[in-house]
Structures are given as structure tokens and as C-alpha cells.
Structure prediction request, 188 residues.
Amino acid sequence: MGYLIIAITGRPGIGKSTIFNKVVDTLKRQGFTFYGFYCPEVREGGVRVGFRIVNIVNGDSGWLALSIDKALQLGYSLKGRRIGRYVVIEDEAVRVGVNALKMFVNDRSSILGIDEIGPMELSIPVLRTEILRSLAIANNALLVIHRNLNDNEVLSIFRRKNAKIYTVTEVNRASLPEILVNEMMKNL
Prediction:
């Protein structure tokens, strides 16, 4: 059986999530179903205070990570893993992320969607294991990956499944959603 694994990467703020959301919305209107999660940033007063993790299927959400100040303000422990200036909220990330990835339906119109696979998501052992399992069994996937992704197990799955990796730039970001939709439509 063939696979269609498409990964989007690029520098922060270049539009990876915007492209991911446009492709997901367009393919959903074409009758395809997505399962997985996305991790939008949360800003207050123009300052990023953290990242949510949101189940694509049902909208269930929780905190993936919070700035140290925001974590203290909300009463979270600072004993979790730290990624840069953020503390990972492991319990919530596992609850939402693992449940989202277990919504797999073995169907050609079902697409794994993850925005993003990066240091925060992969720092949580239970979530990392579920991401690897999901990548291994997915026939079709649309992923956003951190620009410096160097996880050997993830990259091994990408090689085995001939993943196509697109780097978002100022030059291609306007046309990339349509390119990716067309690529997925002709191969699904």
C-alpha cells in the first residue's frame, strides 16, 4: 500500500500553521477526515505566554507548555520539563495528544494531522511514543515539523515512507496550500 506523508517546515512565523490549516479545511470540504492535534500559540497583550494542544476531531484542548510566569500565575508546578523559557504541562499534553492520535480510522480518506512535531511534543515520553506509533501506522499524513527536527526515529519513518518535505518561504507560502491540496488529492 502506498503512503502519502507530507511535512511542512520553515522558520518560526513564516506561515506553517496557516498553510496547515488551509490544507486541512480544504480537504475536509472535499470529504476527507483528519485526526491528530495542533498546537497554537497563545498570546496575551502581544506576548506569547504558551501553547495549547487541541484535538482536531473534537476540539478538546489543554496546555502543552506555558511561560514560567504564566505557569506560576495559573498555579502549575515548575517541576516539568523546560524547553527554552517554557515549562511543559505533561499531564494535559498527554491527555489531549494521546486521545487525539488514537482517533485513527483505517480508511483511505483518513489523514493524520499534527501541527507540530517538535521539541515540546517529543520531550513527553508517552506523547512521543504515540506520535511514533501514529506515524508508523498512518497511510496519509499532513505534518508540521520543527525546522531543526533531528529525532532519528521520526526521520527513519519519514525515510521508510518516502515523506515529502516542503520548506515554507516568503516566495512559496502563498501558493503552497494549493500545491499541497493538489498533491494530496491526486494521491489519496
